[in-house]
Amino acid sequence: MSEDGLEVEWTPPSEYRIEIGTEPLDRPARNSVGGWPYFDDGQEWPRCFCGERMALFFQLDLPEDIEFFGGEHLSVFHCAHHNEASDPVTADGRLVPRFWEAPQPPFPGSFWRVLLQRDPGIPEAEPEPAVRALPLTLRPAKDTYFKVGGTASWVQYPEYYRCACGAELAFVCQVPENWAFGVSPGAPVQPYSIRDDAYLLFLGNEVYLLACPQRCDPAAVFPVNQN
C-alpha cells in the first residue's frame, strides 16, 4: 500500500541462474570458475590461516539490477587443504569485527574468503592453478538454485545475521548442495570431497552468501551453510 492508499504491486527482486560452460578458458574472463582473479587496487589474493593461497572457486560480475550489489564483482575463495562448514562468530548480536578472519572450529583461523569488489581492473598474471578454468554465463531465471539475486531458497530455515558495522546482511548468491568444481590434474586432493578430481565448498553444504549492504569492507560476506 502506497502513502496515498493505492495498491502497489510487489515486484520480485531480479534473479539470475549461473550456468557453467564446458570449453576450458585459455584467457582471463570476469565470469569464470577458476581462472584469472580480478582484484581492486590494494586487494591481494587471499590466504588461508595455514599460509597457503586460497583457491578461486568462481567469480562473476553482478548484473546492475541486483539489489544493493549490482555492478560489483563477486569472488569466492576456499582453501584446498582445509574443508569444514562455516561457523558464525558473534558477539552482542552481531558478527564480530573482521568476522571473515575469525577462528573456524576446529581451525584457528579462516579457510575461506568471499569478496565483493567495486572496480577490479587488470586480472592477475597467472590463473588459479587447482580449479579448472571454465566460463560462467548469467541468465534471467526464477526458482533456480545456483544463482545470484532473488531470494534464498532455504533448505532448513531462514538465517539472519547483522554485520559488525550494524547493518543486516543481505542475500547475494546461492550454491547448491554437493556442487562439484572440477580440478586440474595434479591438484591437491581436498579433504572430505566426493572425488579426488573435484572440490566442494564447505563440505558440500548448500551455501548462501550474505553480504553487508553498507559495504563496510570488500570481505564483509558471510557464507551460511545448510544441509
Key phrases:
227 residues; mainly beta; Hypothetical protein YwqG fold; ten-stranded antiparallel sheet; two-stranded antiparallel ribbon; 14 strands; globular; DUF1963 domain-containing protein
Outline:
Helices cover 0% and strands 28% of the residues. It is mostly beta strands. It comes from Streptomyces toyocaensis.
Question: What is the number of beta strands?
Answer: 14
Distance between the termini: 37 Å
Q: Assess the beta-strand content as a share of residues.
A: 25-35%
Number of domains: 1
CATH top level label: Mainly Beta
Unreliable spans are none
Alpha-carbon Rg, integer: 17 Å
User: What's the overall average pLDDT, rounded?
Assistant: 94
Number of helical segments with 4 or more residues:
0
> Secondary-structure element sequence?
EEEEEEEEEEEEEE
Helix content: under 10%
Q: How would you write the strand order of the largest sheet?
A: 7-4-3-2-8-1-9-10-13-14
Q: What's the assembly state of these chains?
A: single chain
The global form is globular
Q: Do you know the CATH architecture? A: Roll
Q: Find the CATH topology.
A: Hypothetical protein YwqG fold
The biggest sheet, with number of strands, parallel, antiparallel or mixed sense and barrel status, is: 10 strands, antiparallel
